[in-house]
Specification:
Structural class: alpha+beta
Strand content: 25-35%
CATH superfamily of the largest domain: Hsp33 domain
Radius of gyration: 22 Å
CATH architecture of the largest domain: 3-Layer(bab) Sandwich
Bound molecules: zinc ion
Number of helices: 11
Number of domains: 2
Number of strands: 14
Helix content: 25-40%
Shape: globular
Order of helices and strands: EEHHEEEHHEEHEEHHHHEEEHEEH
Largest sheet: 6 strands, antiparallel
Length: 347
């Protein structure tokens, strides 16, 4: 029987379902008494009796690091937080060695949103928005929260792209779909439908909260995905109706998780998964960690400037006459004076 999971190296096939079952990890299930470190983690699970696998991903400190640095208005910060947790969720479900990028672009107030996740768990993100257009879309001064179903209003007509850049040996994969549907999860569902993936359900929530006089961001995503028959351990004679019923049950249980539960810092992820799925043979796998980290460096900027050529740097010069290159992700500025440029361009 052929496997439907695709090879991550092939450019024409999506790698987003390529993860095979990992060996069970040491996660306690049912949950232990003391809550484990749950934030900035992916918690993969498998529902053996339903032939479904999934993950609960929760981001906290890594979001704070990105969003505080940029000082985005709420209606930009929440879509960014949701996009980052979606990217972390998809990245944690595929086998790759390199960078997974999720990009939303459109003609709305948020023109561009980019977030990427390396295979060792470094996450980063940024967004570009027009404050005037944002105020016009939201009313008032544009400082209100993004409305539910914000995609058409804030992104307009545009597209969602997933890219996997791996080491030189393998090709780049890119999947692109138009922005369709009111929520980011709807747009992701469109991708999974159009790319002939396995049936996939995703629920995404994000919220800014006040605690101990400080603002904290939390975002969570729950994803369930029908497993290829082989992985489900039920190789022969699967009743299609039963399989459809099993899938529906998994989606209904996933959707029954409330925003409050998903974002509750006092509720361990293992407890939430136990509540949702304990009747369905849930097994947990080893957690994967994420951390906020940018990959920019002076060396990379050197390489980029060399590729441009010295005579074409005029547009990059700031008021001081320095060539100034700012990283969009982390706002680090790399400045080059004439002496630096002499050194850079000497052959
Ligand atoms: Zn950077």
């Amino acid at each position: 029987m052929p496997r439907r999971a695709s090879s991550p190296g092939a450019s024409h096939e999506s790698p987003l379902v390529s993860e095979q079952s990992a060996a069970p990890g040491s996660a306690d299930f049912p949950p232990a008494d003391s809550p484990p470190a749950d934030w900035d983690r992916a918690l993969p699970f498998q529902l053996d009796t339903l032939g479904v696998r999934g993950r609960l991903v929760r981001l906290g400190p890594s979001l704070d690091a990105v969003i505080e640095r940029h000082g985005y208005p709420l209606a930009v910060a929440r879509p960014l937080a949701e996009a980052m947790v979606l990217a972390a969720t998809l990245a944690s479900s595929l086998k790759y060695d390199g960078v997974f990028t999720l990009q939303l672009s459109g003609d709305g107030p948020i023109r561009l949103l980019v977030t990427d996740v390396t295979s060792d768990g470094a996450v980063r993100g940024y967004a570009q928005h027009d404050q005037g257009a944002l105020a016009a879309a939201l009313g008032g001064d544009g400082e209100a929260d993004a409305p539910d179903g914000y995609v058409p209003k804030l992104f307009g007509a545009g597209r969602l792209a997933f890219t996997v850049d791996q080491s030189q040996r393998t090709q780049r994969y890119q999947g692109i779909v138009p922005l369709e549907g009111p929520t980011l999860a709807d747009c992701a569902h469109t991708y999974f439908r159009q790319s002939e993936q396995l049936p996939t359900g995703i629920k995404i929530v994000a919220r800014r909260e006040q605690a101990e006089g400080r603002t904290h961001w939390r975002a969570a995503a729950l994803m369930v995905q029908q497993m290829p028959e082989l992985d489900a351990g039920r190789i022969h004679h699967i009743d299609p109706d039963q399989r459809e019923d099993d899938w529906r049950r998994a989606v209904i249980l996933m959707a029954s998780a409330t925003e409050r539960e998903m974002l509750d810092p006092a509720l361990p992820g293992t407890t939430l998964l136990y509540r949702l799925f304990h009747e369905d043979g849930a097994r947990l796998f080893e957690r994967r960690a994420f951390q906020s980290r940018c990959r920019c460096s002076r060396q990379r900027v050197d390489t980029m400037l060399r590729s441009i050529g010295r005579t074409e740097l005029a547009t990059l010069r700031d008021v001081r006459g320095l060539v100034a290159v700012k990283c969009e992700f982390c706002s680090t500025s790399y400045d080059y004076g004439e002496t630096d440029l002499d050194w850079l361009y000497k052959s």
